[in-house]
Amino acid sequence: MMTQQLQIPGTDLSIFPINLGTNTFGWTADEAGSHAVLDAFLAAGGNFLDTAESYPAWVPGNTGHESETIIGTWLAARGNRDKVVIATKVGDHPDHKTQDPEYIRTAIDASLERLQTDYVDLYYAHRDDEVTPIAEVARVFDEIVRAGKVKHVAVSNYSKDRLAEWLAVAEQENLAKPVAIQPQYSLVFRRDYETELKPLAQEHNLGVFTYFSLAAGFLTGKYRTEEDLEGASRGGMVQGYFNADGLKAVAELVAVAEAHDVAPATIALAWLLAKGATAPIVSARTPEQLDALMAAPALELSYEELARLDQASAPFA
């Protein structure tokens, strides 16, 4: 199942082109289950983990620090920090939605403590507060890079204009430049990325790590009727895609998957990779769910199959 590793643009970080999202840790997977997923991910050739100081704060009774903490106990138990590339994020916690520089200085230290590591490879501004001047945010991110706490800077959920401003400030002031973005992008959520951020990402050679790559599980093909949504942990998230256009896209996805004798999720991720995603982010609740995800980089869609999927998902483009 091993596939060629690739380098995150503008870095010396070598990754397998599937990014394991760990927002399920402390939510649908407990500590032991999460450790099992991490072990299986590494055994299958994966090495790139995505977390945040806020995962999973949406679960009643959680602090939002569970995912980082669980990764930290796994790193400590396995002693394998040098085998993984870790990305975490600041500024979308229910208690701290800010990109205030003073907060970022304390947040990185808290994340490092929970992760039980001296540094993170990629540190994202998780969500723009649209108030803090971009220059201030860019400078504090540069400061923590120079302090050795962070290898590289990245940006998630910023508008095209605010991202362009950050890139310009970094250039002018010789600051650590963002090397990657994390946009929402999938077969059933295309417009925002393709029209707004993709041209900027290509111009500046940014890594692209897509979230909701499987549309909260909708693109696994398991939600085809209203009954399928009942009792599902992500049923509410899937509801937004559950319409005639969404179901038509899934039907085409399933048809292509059947032709290859693979899971629909494998095709959905192969489509993203063909569209220029560096490493789609996907989460797994159990080790068994990883097989379909890890198979995607080795699968090449034909020109005709890509055209079929593009056509079926055109209402979202």
Task: Characterize the structure shown.
By secondary structure, the protein is an alpha/beta fold. It has an eight-stranded parallel β-sheet, with helices on one face. Strands 1-2 form a two-stranded antiparallel sheet. Helix 6 links the parallel strand 8 and strand 9. It starts with 5 loop residues before the first strand and ends in a 5-residue tail after the last helix. The longest helix has 17 residues. Helix 9 runs antiparallel to helix 12.
Please give a quick description of this structure.
This protein has helices at residues 31-43, 66-78, 101-115, 134-146, 160-173, 191-203, 226-229, 235-238, 244-260, 264-274, 290-294, 303-312; strands at 6-7, 14-15, 19-21, 48-50, 85-90, 120-125, 150-156, 178-182, 207-208, 281-283. The chain is α/β, with parallel strands linked by helices and 317 residues long.
Strand order of the largest sheet: 9-8-7-6-5-4-3-10
Number of distinct beta strands: 10
Using the CA coordinates, give the radius of gyration.
19 Å
Strand fraction: 5-15%
Helix content: 40-55%
Mean pLDDT reading:
94
Largest sheet: 8 strands, parallel
Inertia-based shape = globular
Category from helices, strands and their pairing: alpha/beta
Ends apart, CA distance between termini: 32 Å
Q: Low-confidence runs (pLDDT<50, min 5 residues)?
A: none
User: How many alpha or pi helices?
Assistant: 12
Write the element-wise H/E pattern from the N-terminal end onward. Answer: EEEHEHEHEHEHEHEHHHHEHH
